[in-house]
Amino acid sequence: MSVGVLMINAQGIMLTVDGNDYFLSYNRVPWMKDAPISSVLNVQREGQSAITWPDLDVDLEIESLKHPERYPLIMKREANEVI
After folding, report:
1. Residue 28: is its pLDDT beyond 70?
2. 20-25 and 44-46: which strand pairing?
3. Which of 73, 9, 13, 1 shows the shortest CA–CA distance to 40?
4. Longest C-alpha distance within the chain, in Å?
5. pTM check: above 0.90
6. CB-based contacts of 4, cutoff 8 Å, min separation 6
7. CB neighbours of 56 closer than 8 A, spacing ≥ 6?
8. Residues in contact with 59: Cβ distance below 8 Å, sequence separation at least 6, in sequence order
9. Residue 37 pLDDT > 60
10. What pLDDT, in 10s, does the model give residues 50-66?
């Protein structure tokens, strides 16, 4: 079980997870766009089903890479407000 960053560009990050490649657009993870490269490269496997960037306090389910349409982004501004 391996995970790594293949490429970082202006649009997002190309990851490899268990031999499968996934493009993670900054549209889906905007908080990673201005992250230090060294922090983005520090990606680790978290059990069987997730990956994590410990320097950025970001965790992603591997299923969300395989099927992003099943994981819509929801951002909360306040405790009771969802956009």
Report:
1. yes
2. unpaired
3. 13
4. 40
5. no
6. 15, 16, 43
7. 31, 32, 35, 39, 40
8. 46, 50, 51, 52, 53
9. yes
10. 999 999 998 999 998 88
3-state helix, strand, coil in the chain (%, to 5): 20, 35, 45
* Mean pLDDT of the 27-31 span: 86
At residue 22, the pLDDT reads 95
In angstroms, how far is CA 74 from the centroid of its own chain? 15
What lies within 8 Å, CB to CB, of 6 at 6+ separation is: 14, 15, 16, 21
Which strands form 50-53's sheet, in the order they lie side by side? 44-46, 50-53, 58-61
Q: Which residues of 65-74 are buried (b: 16+ CB within 10 A; e: fewer)?
A: beeeeeeeee
